[in-house]
Write a structure and sequence with these properties.
64 residues; single chain; 4 strands; four-stranded antiparallel β-sheet
Length: 64
């Protein structure tokens, strides 16, 4: 699944954050299911280009 598909299915971007971890800059973004403090939906992990120790996390949730 990709960001475009999430948006087409009605998920909205709640917020973005950073977290510790590694994700290759050469590979595609990683999408994981999410259920937590901000609702139910998906998180999209993407690499940061200023450091290799952190990744950007975008929270896509369904509006209530």
């Amino acid at each position: 699944m990709e960001r475009k598909e999430l948006i087409e299915q009605g998920y909205i971007l709640h917020h973005t954050a950073s977290r510790r971890g590694y994700l290759s800059r050469k590979g595609p973004e990683k999408v994981e299911a999410y259920k937590g403090r901000f609702g139910c939906g998906y998180i999209v992990l993407s690499p940061r280009f200023d450091t290799s120790r952190y990744v950007d996390v975008a929270y896509y949730v369904r509006p209530v």
